[in-house]
Every structure is written in structure tokens, then in C-alpha cells.
Specification:
By secondary structure, this protein is mainly beta. It has one domain. 10% of the residues lie in helices and 41% in strands. The protein contains two helices and twelve strands; from the N terminus they run E-E-E-E-E-E-E-E-E-H-H-E-E-E. It has helices at residues 134-144, 150-159, and strands spanning 30-36, 39-46, 49-54, 60-66, 71-76, 79-85, 91-93, 96-101, 117-125, 170-178, 183-191, 199-208. Strands 1-2-3-4-5-6-7-8-9-10-11-12 form a twelve-stranded antiparallel sheet, with helices on one face. The longest helix is centred in the middle third of the chain and has 11 residues, at 134-144. It is globular.
Length: 211
């Protein structure tokens, strides 16, 4: 079984500003297994639908993308969540802020091979994510086309175990981009206070947008 050790938003956010919502999911079913704490999940993707099934109790979460991946509906534990993106690029769940995007005045210019330019900052919190990561999957899809590979989805779910035993955690992601190398650099900050103070941990990860 493949293992994925990434932050809660470390894969979905790099695509937030640079990829239009036109990447289509394969019609051929893809399946991946992932373990979070003591529970295992089966993740299946077909067309515009992603299904996450818990191996322990057969509970199922379904994410259905709509309107050419401009919105999504998440079905989980008998509840329905409507996920949309506002004009500023932030993600809303049932009309409430889920992933806040700060406005950036940056205009990407030609970069040198080692220069990064600030793009934007995202803010969210641990409690916004359901156990299976269904809302994170939906947000990933709205930010950059469908959630993409099963590895991406599995990574989002796996990462939720990082603070599974903690109280609320507030997350800030500062994003940079090198238009010369097509590399995205995300710096993640995890705080214990809602005003984003009391730093718990931080780290930086990089990913190339285009191969």
C-alpha cells in the first residue's frame, strides 16, 4: 500500500491560482487505499464523482462535482454540504467560510531560475475538515479542476491524523510561485489560537506544477 505523508492542504493548494478548472477526471475507475490512525479507507474516483469508504464500518462519503467543477456536493454521515467558490477565490461550505483566500496584488513577471514571488495566503482550521476529508477533496477540486489523482485525495485524508488528538488548530498557508521553473512553494503554519498566534509547527514544501 502506498503511503502519503503531506500536510492537510499541501497538494491541493499549489493548483489554486495557476490551473483553470478544466482538467477532467478519467472515466476509468481509480482506486487507492489509505490508513488514517487505526482506520483504513478505500478511495474511488470515476468521472466527476469521488467516493471514500471506511473499511471499519463501511460508512461512505461521496463528493460530486457540478457546473464544470465550479461547485460540489458532499454527502457524509447523512448530511449534505454544498461547496462553492466566491469571486475572491475563497471556498464556502453551506455559505460559511471554509478556506479563506487573502487578496494578492501580485502580477507574475518573468522569474529567474531561483526566484519566487509571493502569490497569496490561505487560512483555514482543523475542525472544518470532516473525518474522511470530503470537504478537503471538494475544495481541491474547486481550486484546480477535479481533485486529480487518487494520491492527492489519499494525501489529504492521511494528513488529518497529524493533529487528531489535539484541540482546534488554525492553519495558514503562504504561497509563492516561480514562473520560470513552474515551482510552487507553500509554507505551512499551525497555530493554537484563532488569531493565528501560538505557533505549534511550521514547514515548507515545494511542488512543480507542470512536468
Amino acid at each position: 500500500m502506498k503511503k502519503f505523508f503531506v500536510s492537510v492542504l499541501s497538494i491541493m493548494l499549489p493548483f489554486s491560482l495557476f490551473l483553470p478548472n478544466h482538467v477532467q477526471a478519467s472515466e476509468t475507475p481509480n482506486t487507492e487505499s489509505v490508513t488514517l490512525d487505526s482506520d483504513s479507507y478505500i478511495i474511488e474516483q470515476q468521472g466527476n464523482t469521488i467516493k471514500v469508504t471506511s473499511a471499519s464500518d463501511d460508512s461512505e462519503t461521496k463528493v460530486v462535482f457540478k457546473n464544470d467543477y465550479q461547485s460540489a456536493t458532499v454527502y457524509e454521515d447523512g448530511l449534505t454540504y454544498e461547496v462553492t467558490q466566491d469571486a475572491a477565490g475563497s471556498i464556502l461550505v453551506n455559505g460559511s467560510m471554509f478556506l479563506e483566500k487573502e487578496e494578492s496584488q501580485l502580477k507574475l513577471l518573468k522569474a529567474t531560475s531561483n526566484s519566487y514571488k509571493y502569490v497569496t495566503t490561505f487560512k483555514t482550521k482543523k475542525s472544518a475538515y470532516t473525518k474522511s476529508g470530503g470537504l478537503g477533496i471538494a475544495a481541491a477540486g474547486l481550486l484546480g479542476g477535479p481533485a486529480g489523482t487518487i494520491a492527492t485525495i489519499a494525501g489529504i485524508i492521511t494528513s488529518l491524523g497529524s493533529f487528531a488528538k489535539s484541540n482546534e488548530v488554525y492553519i495558514k498557508i503562504v504561497q509563492y510561485y516561480n514562473s520560470y521553473t513552474h515551482m510552487v512553494r507553500n509554507t505551512y503554519y499551525f497555530y493554537k489560537n484563532s488569531n493565528y498566534t501560538g505557533l505549534l509547527k511550521s514547514y515548507t514544501a515545494e511542488q512543480r506544477l507542470f512536468s
